[in-house]
Amino acid sequence: MVRSPHWRSLESLLIPAGAIVVALLLFGGFCALAGANPLQVYGSIYKAAFGSASAWQNTLIRASPLMLTALCTGLPARLGLVIIGNEGALVIGALAALVAGLALGPTLPGFLVLLAMAIASLAAGGLWIMAAGALRHYRGVNETISSLLMNYLAIALMNHLVEGPLRDPGFVTKPSSYEITQAAWLGNLPGSRIHYGLLYGLVACVIAYLVMQRTTFGFAARTAGGNMRAARMAGLPVGQLTLAVCFLGGACAGLAGLVEIAAVQRRLNESIVSNYGYAGILVSFVARHNPLAMIPVSILLGGILASGGILQRSHGLPDATVLVFQGIVFLCVLYSDSLYRRL
Amino acid sequence: MRDHHRSLPLSRRQILRGLLATSAFGLTAKFGTGCTQSTTSEGGAGSPAKDFVVGFLYVGPKDDFGYNQAHAEGAAAMVANVPGIKLVEEASVPETTAVAEAMRSMIEVDGAKALFPTSFGYFDPYILELAKEFPDVQFFHAGGLYQEGVHPKNICSYFGYIDEAQYVAGVVAGHTSKSGKLGFVAAKPIPQLLRNVNSFTLGARSINPAATTQVIFTGDWSVPVKEAEATNSMADQGVDVVTCHVDSPKVVIETAEKRGIFSSGYHANQSSLAPKGYLTGAEWDWSSIYTSLGEQLLAGKSIANGDIPHILRGGLADKFCKLSPYGPAVSDAAKADADAALADIKAGKLTIYQGPLKTNDGKEILPAGKGLKIDDMQLETMDYLVEGVKGSVS
Amino acid sequence: MAAALGWWGVPLAIVAGTLRGSVPFLFVSLGECLTEKSGKINLGLEGTLRMGAMAAYGVSYLAAGWLGPGLSPWLGVLVAGLAGMGLGAIHGWLSQQRRVNDVAVGIAMIILGSGLANFLGKPFIQPQAPQLPIFKLAEWSGLPQVQAALQISPLLLLGIAIVPLMHWGFKSTRWGLHVRAVGDRPEAARAMGISVFKVRLTSIIIGSGLAGIGGASLSLYYPGLWTERISSGQGLMAVALVIFARWQPWQCLWASLLFGGAQALGPAFQSVGIDTYYYLFTATPYILTLVIMILTCSPQRTLLGSPGALGQED
Fold first, then answer.
1. What DSSP character marks residue B181?
2. Nearest in space to B246 (alpha carbons), one of B274, B279, B275, B217
3. Cβ contacts of residue C11 below 8 Å, gap of 6+?
């Protein structure tokens, strides 16, 4: 179908907007069946996610880990690899950050401890996913499976250490590690209650975009992703690219682990596993692995999650409703991708 | 794949897409708001502004036949018994920043003046931070360890000495078990759980000094398959009375019934799940506590002023917990001993943690003649298993 | 009462765990095997598993009144299969649209499926639904533990029966040929006149239906109840199993048995006194799978048996 160029550029605005509208209508229908007033529900969702400065902060707080974990899937995806080990990389990064923080806390000034923790988490997360990439390149092991299995391994390791060698006997509410020293705590962005993790996420996405789009490395990676065999024949070092890209992706997820330790929980325990990894996979795919697009998609998911509470409290809808909401929105947005150039 | 020859980076479309998606989302919702009433509460002829709003937060679903349900029933009792209290609840709130945001939202949007975040893990750092930020709101946390001088003044840390009830359940188990082998399906080794394991064992051993308790840790608060496997492997080893401390005892009780062994409940009354094998159980009785707290809150009492204590604990005598009615398999002798123990505990005559007491790897906890009263702070950091328990905490 | 088995308890627990724990893995992996043979990945089976579990339990409970406790669980199984097929239809249609990625749809479907299951399943957490019958194979044994261990669900038998059926289907029937053609070379299949869309949609729907039945086994057989955490990643693991099993139905069977048995290891070891490292014991099946994959894969052989079109878009 031949359409004017104006229409084509309008498409990129109308189609996702349309997808959201349709998703809201479907969800409204669902709420109506469940006995709630859809229009009031819409109002509550807006109020809880974007309706005030406090609501925006709620949304952004929930969005910030997603930006980092999404990169863990998004970067290797440019090379054609499907990595779903974000959760494991986050946990390993958190573990490394905690160990570094506990070891260096007493001896170094706060800023240096934090720096050491960051380096540890980047390295640990990066190596973790790089291992999956190496297994793929050198042993042909499917990276989706290996990264998935490594998630379970990371979580088991974390639980074992937290209940054993690292356990803080004074923290009674759940088996937990010692707390890192207060000097190394990551603070909030001035004037808000959002921690610096948001800034890390934004910066990481921008840097990832620039690296992928504007450097020769990124170009090589994308080329190899487009056609692995042609890239090999052209002499591109596919093995090195695989390892490097996996390392970068894993490092981002590891950094998310650092943020959870240094900014939110200050200690390591089972709560580090809170599905940020799996949500990040979805964000990455919906953003079509474009790091800049991951920012608004994370915010969208953050907003949906932020509205979960009010659906329960003000409309008597059960807690599972926010999951249904998420599912409908993402299915609609995913479908809308297929409408480009079709309308 | 990407069209590299386009002059504009394709990504701009992506960014615009995403941004407009988000704002379209916002606009549509806002458009919806314009046509609705400003109040977001569902139905209800305008509740008087003087309603005291109390918020409850649960870590799992409200009807899990276990921990969360016990709290939810107590909350419902508070509302039913104390007119003037308005309840807002949120379930399945994970122990992450999500709970901090949920509490904040209850305070800012619903105007909650008292919050009951009912999961252990909500305490540090979430409640601590929010209590500092909202000194006028009162936070009642189930399970945490309040420290005078260290923690903000508007926090009350309450919990029940349900190990008293587990002791009596252990007495019944000790009588009923023919093999002398008891089983305990445990989630994670935290002090409140270990107290239950230990007091159950001590209660059983007060009847049968050779009784042992096999404890199996499943690693998480709600893993049905592992809990079923644990119950099955204990039954394979000859255990004939099993109890548990997991979020939802349903799996353990039902599996025990299928294997034909006896069971002792926890959190709530699960006797309907095991008509033949349910002996008794250690239940929470939050209804009376929450009703009393509700009345105190309505009367203007506050934790910060010291009207309500910072550390609120109580056992069977103070109605924080109770024993489930005896099941059909409980013998009269067992009932007699159990009732006697119950009476003694309520009268303060029976000390559960009484020396000589050793851990199950031989270290001494209490020498002969010494005892720890149930409210002794040392018990709140328990990290051992007593002699007679098979298993280890690490 | 029965004497303790001591160390014999461990292999017995593994056998028992294999017999009862493998059923959901078996159905989900067989279903996913079919789906992936046709060239699509359905990660959403985790949500389908939960939906099936909830639907089976709910229907069994609601129908117990007019069908009686003998038949109502079977109706539950049927409805679970239908529910699975419904979710499969959504996944199958959506993932075949232009520019829509399988993995993304799968994860979105996990969320939707779990959400719907939890939402609709609220009224069913408390009540007890009639369970599926069990074949007791070991009545001859004097030991109650052995009797309890050697119990088989008809669903396990059904699943095992499907294995050779599927194997034969892929190898020797025209329909199996279509599925494989569509999975290996969709362009060639199209040239042959096969509707790629229809074959894939059918495969995904049937595969998802099987997963729904796997879910029914969770709630109507073992552990035999409905709660929101009934499945903790089993659907996702079953997808991994299929690749581990090289897309062969018989290997799916062995892999499912392996996983089912490994689930029982942790608690069984604790009950004989091995209680350190219990987290790592719990992670054994995953570690085992990873190790086996590392040992048996090689860059050339990994693609052997892999449907050629797996992972491609459009």
1. E
2. B217
3. none
Give the closest-approach CA distance of A238 to chain B in angstroms.
18
The answer to whether C126 contacts B63, with C-beta atoms less than 8 Å apart, is yes
Task: Dump strand ranges (E) for B199-314.
Answer: 212-217, 241-245, 262-267, 278-284, 311-314
DSSP state of A188: B
Phi, psi of B353 (to 5 degrees): -95, 85
pTM assigned to the model? 0.89
* Structure confidence at residue C82 as a pLDDT band (50, 70, 90): very high
What domain count does chain A have? 1
Which CATH superfamily includes the segment(s) B162-283+322-390? Response regulator (3.40.50.2300)
Structure tokens that stand for C285 in this block? 């099946």
Say if residue B356 is preceded by a cis peptide, omega within 30 of 0.
yes
Query: B10 pLDDT exceeds 60?
Result: no
pLDDT 10s digits, A216-253:
999 999 988 888 888 888 888 889 999 999 999 999 99
Query: What is the pLDDT confidence band of residue B49, given thresholds at 50, 70 and 90?
Result: low
Q: Which two tokens stand for residue C67?
A: 């069908």
Q: Measuring CA to CA, how many Å separate A211 from each of A152, A222, A232, A247? A: 31, 11, 21, 14
* Residue in B28, B101, B110 closest to A58 by CB: B101
Q: CB distance A320–C101 less than 8 Å?
A: no
Paired with C152 in beta bridges are C135
ipTM: 0.90
Report the pLDDT value the prediction gives residue B57, as an integer from 0 to 100.
Answer: 95
Statement: residue B211 has pLDDT above 90: yes
Q: How many Cα atoms within 13 Å fall on the side-chain side of residue A324? A: 22
Q: Which residue's entry shows tokens 């105007």?
A: B111
Please state the φ and ψ torsions of residue C233, each to the nearest 5 degrees.
95, 10
**Chain A: residue nearest B157 by CA?**
A173
Architecture of domain B52-160+286-314: 3-Layer(aba) Sandwich (3.40)
Q: Confidence band (pLDDT; 50, 70, 90) for C286? A: confident
Per-residue pLDDT tens digits for A169-197: 888 778 889 888 888 888 888 888 899 99
- B254 contacts chain C (CB < 8 A): yes
CATH number for the domain spanning A266: value is 1.10.3470
Range of A293's domain? 25-331
pLDDT in tens, A198-223: 999 999 999 999 999 999 999 999 98
Min Cα distance C285 → chain B (Å) is 14
Give the residue-averaged pLDDT of C301-307: 61
- Tell whether C149 is within 8 A of chain B (Cβ): yes
The string of DSSP letters for B339-371 reads HHHHHHHHHT---SEESSEEBTTS-EEE-TT-E
**Single-letter amino acid, residue B214:** Q
- Domain membership of residue A16 (yes or no) is no
Interchain contact B178–C (C-beta under 8 A): yes
The CATH class of the C6-303 domain is mainly alpha
Q: Per-domain residue ranges for chain B?
A: 52-160+286-314, 162-283+322-390
The SS3 of residue B241 is strand
Cα angle, residue C226 at apex, residues C220 and C227 outer, rounded to 5°: 155
- C16 chain-B contacts, CB cut-off 8 A: 232, 236
Is pLDDT at C2 greater than 50 in this prediction? no
Supply the pLDDT for residue C243: 81
Structure tokens that stand for C40 in this block: 């699509």
Whole-number Å distance between alpha carbons of B183 and B215: 6
Tens-place pLDDT, residues B144-197: 778 888 888 899 989 889 999 999 999 999 999 999 999 999 998 888 899 999
- DSSP class per residue in B20-66: HHHHHHHHHHHHHHHTS-S--S-SSS---TTPEEEEEE-SS-TTSSS
